Recover the amino acids of this structure.
């Protein structure tokens, strides 16, 4: 056996596994098993092989001598993805762009006050999650500044639809343990308008993490508009939180107007029994979705969100 390999270069490269945290000017920041974060470059064969492009969240195999401590790491393969958050490039035929992969859930954060919650905007975030077949949960923060019963009352409809609700405060600590429990070991996209307390919540749950959710992506984003990808932050007790700047822009991710109704889970029961198979649920007769609105099974506000988003999606569709 030894003889067969005589004369060959000994194989010193070690194989690692890692998770891609962000792109870094032609290279990638990768968290290697063991926890170190290192820069890695993409090997040509993977780079150009097939149509699979590397994305933040990807689990990869790497090789490198002496790496990650000091050596150079090369990404040699991408492991199968469990999910992906992708958006369609509105400006042309370049197809979809993968923003992040292997997400387990989308956590949408709003505040009860300062700033006032906006249900229409919340619905957009939820639609984006649904369109990517990702579970979503809703956090209503700053509950110390409001009456919790009023808050629960206001968002009860979302709980009924099936979205898990968290009422939290970084000041009193309310709801933080339950939120921490559902982040542990999972990969979560953290989204919501700025100022609602996303960074504060993360720092309260993970002291020392010093996460500035908005600030980080804003600085990366400077002058590059929507083209910048997601940033993934490892959590101290397993799991990741992903900052996805694109989610906050609330673009509708190349959703088709005909698929939008599927992104409202409480519509699904009524879909399919409308008189017209291609019913838009806007003005057609015999629309069981609109009947459900009248009957109270679908909330008026959610239906209005649907109608508004549908118009918007139809507008963007014309651009493609
Ligand atoms: P982000 O933009 O979503 O990351 O929001 P920040 O974490 O930067 O918080 C915005 C402001 O809200 C800061 O002044 C925080 O101190 C404040 N804040 C965050 N969470 C709470 C909370 O639960 N209660 C109160 N009263 N203020 C909060
Ligand atoms: Zn209909």
């Amino acid at each position: 056996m030894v003889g067969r390999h005589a004369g060959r270069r000994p194989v010193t490269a070690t194989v690692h596994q890692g998770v891609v945290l962000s792109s870094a000017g032609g290279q990638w920041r990768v968290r290697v098993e063991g926890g170190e974060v290192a820069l890695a470059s993409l090997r040509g064969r993977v780079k150009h092989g097939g149509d699979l492009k590397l994305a933040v969240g990807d689990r990869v195999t790497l090789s490198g001598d002496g790496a990650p401590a000091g050596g150079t790491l090369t990404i040699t393969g991408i492991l199968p993805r469990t999910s992906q958050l992708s958006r369609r490039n509105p400006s042309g035929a370049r197809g979809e762009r993968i923003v992040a992969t292997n997400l387990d859930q989308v956590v949408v954060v709003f505040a009860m006050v300062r700033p006032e919650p906006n249900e229409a905007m919340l619905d957009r975030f939820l639609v984006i999650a649904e369109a990517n077949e990702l579970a979503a949960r809703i956090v209503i923060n700053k509950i110390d500044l409001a009456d919790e019963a009023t808050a629960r009352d206001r968002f009860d409809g979302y709980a009924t639809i099936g979205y898990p609700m968290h009422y939290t405060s970084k000041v009193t600590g309310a709801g933080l343990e339950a939120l921490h429990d559902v982040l542990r070991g999972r990969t979560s996209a953290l989204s919501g308008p700025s100022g609602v307390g996303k960074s504060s919540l993360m720092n309260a749950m993970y002291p020392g993490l010093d996460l500035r959710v908005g600030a980080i992506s804003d600085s990366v984003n400077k002058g590059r508009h929507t083209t910048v990808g997601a940033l993934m932050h490892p959590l101290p007790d397993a799991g990741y939180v992903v900052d996805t700047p694109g989610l906050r822009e609330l673009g509708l991710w190349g959703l088709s107007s005909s698929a939008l109704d599927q992104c409202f889970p409480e519509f699904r029961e009524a879909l399919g029994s409308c008189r017209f198979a291609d019913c838009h649920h806007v003005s057609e007769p015999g629309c069981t979705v609109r009947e459900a609105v009248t009957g109270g099974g679908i909330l008026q506000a959610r239906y209005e969100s649907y109608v508004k988003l549908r118009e918007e999606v139809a507008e963007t569709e014309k651009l493609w």
Notes: The domain at 84-243 is CATH 3.40.50.300 (Rossmann fold). Residues 1-6, 215-227 have pLDDT under 50 and may be disordered.
